[in-house]
Amino acid sequence: MEKELIEQNKEDFLNIARTNIKRDGIEGLLKFVESTDFFTAPASTKFHLAEEGGLCAHSLNVYERLEKLMIMEYGEEGYNKEAVAIVALFHDICKACFYKIDYRNVKEDGVWVQKPYYTVDDALPYGHGEKSVYIINGYLRLTREEAIA
User: Fold this and answer.
1) CB under 8 Å to 103, separation ≥6 — which residues?
2) Separation in Å, CA 132 to CA 39, 105, 125
3) pTM of this prediction?
4) Does the CA dihedral 55-58-64-67 come out positive or negative?
5) pLDDT tens by residue, 13-55
6) 99-108 and 111-120 as β-strands: parallel, antiparallel, unpaired?
7) Minimal CA–CA distance to 3: which of 41, 40, 31?
8) How many other C-beta atoms lie within 10 A of the C-beta of residue 51?
9) Which of 17, 47, 106, 130 has the highest Cβ tally under 10 A?
């Protein structure tokens, strides 16, 4: 992903969060996010958006899709915009500082070359969803519905 798009996604993410989330602790959570590799990390090792900047792009995609679904179901003003922003934007916060780049040997045109790839470096071995809830709850209080989502 190009650096300009990564920067635009970061700006969009922060803008959506600050516009929609007014809960105590959001600035602390955003400060934490900015202290990590969240905006440059991949979303996975080899599946969806397994590239630099993929984690933020994926989170924005989830936000946009969830917002569209909520509008279709409940109308423009019939849903909790704050809850949607929290659930969608931070659902994979557990993947911040989760991946690292390693190298493997690959044969290209009969010659072995080292190629980079993403691997997992899990310093907090909770379950995927539980870990995101744990991290978020360190900064702001989630409702039961938000935690389950």
Assistant:
1) 114, 115, 116, 117
2) 16, 34, 11
3) 0.87
4) negative
5) 999 999 999 999 999 999 999 999 999 999 998 888 989 999 9
6) antiparallel
7) 40
8) 15
9) 17
